[in-house]
Design a protein that fits this description.
Length: 296
């Protein structure tokens, strides 16, 4: 079970943020060479990223790089500069269709082969943030075995749709749900969009919980203050984990052991789907505990 509660984006040309990278307790540190870096700074950002891959991972986070999308002239140069040992994954923005995904897969394999990196070890994540990307969501999510996660990109989606971005996110409902369902159907982790109004923590929490109810298991983080909140909201609450443990124990002892597929617990019916869901909660809790122990 991949735990990706937070992917904290660091401008790859910002030495101050890069120097602090190991101190950020995010599950993933993402060096951003795309939107956070102006064209004249791309080469500087590539060089700084390549030099700091291992350093950024020293705090216990995985390290990804968001390269520029294939619709630009920068993608190949980005990949040539940063795909080296120590890189855990690449995030492709503005993914339009399955061909965009396959093209990145091919380029990663070519670089791995050329540089002595085990083929297939560099993981892929994609951003679906245009009308085309949303319409092709399932095809994109199933286009490569390297894919581990898919982000919904609300800001660019709203710009592409010529609609206003709001904290309430009602205008994003269809696209957001589509990404979550496509990710789940492809056995990928669904990651929610960045929340630009980072100083409004109440709105951030509500928006995050709305996403949790859709199936998102993490999100893009653009400010350090959002990391701890995201980890809390994307982790099983103590009472949820305690109830899951109670359900699993009761169903195994009073149901499965006695040849029953449905039993009553505290006035509620417990059957196989409820049992499987409870097992999932406990598995996620165990993975999170292991991840946090490794960081310490």
């Amino acid at each position: 079970m991949a735990i990706m509660r937070s992917s904290f984006y660091v401008p790859a040309n910002n030495a101050k943020f890069i120097d602090k990278a190991p101190s950020f307790p995010a599950d993933i540190i993402t060096f951003d060479i795309e939107d956070a870096v102006p064209p004249q700074q791309k080469e500087v950002a590539r060089k700084m990223t390549a030099e700091k891959l291992a350093y950024a991972a020293s705090g216990g986070s995985e390290v990804y790089v968001r390269v520029n999308g294939w619709h630009t002239e920068f993608t190949n140069d980005d990949l040539e500069a940063v795909v080296y040992p120590g890189l855990h994954g690449v995030t492709l923005p503005k993914t339009r269709d399955a061909d965009d995904v396959k093209r990145l897969d091919w380029k990663l394999e070519e670089l791995e082969t050329r540089r002595g990196i085990p083929v297939g070890s560099v993981k892929m994540s994609i951003l679906l943030e245009t009308a085309s990307g949303i319409m092709n969501a399932y095809a994109c999510c199933t286009a490569s075995k390297r894919l581990v996660s898919v982000f919904f990109g609300a800001v660019d989606y709203c710009a592409d749709m010529r609609i206003r971005l709001t904290n309430e996110a009602k205008e994003q409902a269809y696209a957001r749900t589509t990404v979550a369902v496509a990710a789940r159907s492809a056995d990928l982790v669904a990651l929610d969009a960045p929340f630009p109004d980072y100083s409004n923590m109440d709105a951030f929490e509500k928006n995050t919980l709305d996403g949790v109810s859709m199936g998102f298991e993490g999100r893009m983080i653009i400010h350090p203050s959002q990391i701890e909140v995201a980890h809390r909201l994307y982790s099983p609450a103590p009472e949820e984990a305690a109830h899951a443990a109670k359900v699993v124990k009761f169903f195994e002892e009073e149901g499965l052991a006695k040849g029953l597929a449905s039993v009553a617990l505290d006035g509620k019916m417990i059957d196989t789907p409820v049992y499987v869901n409870a097992q999932g909660v406990l598995a996620r809790q165990a993975e999170i505990q292991q991840k946090e122990a490794r960081r310490k």
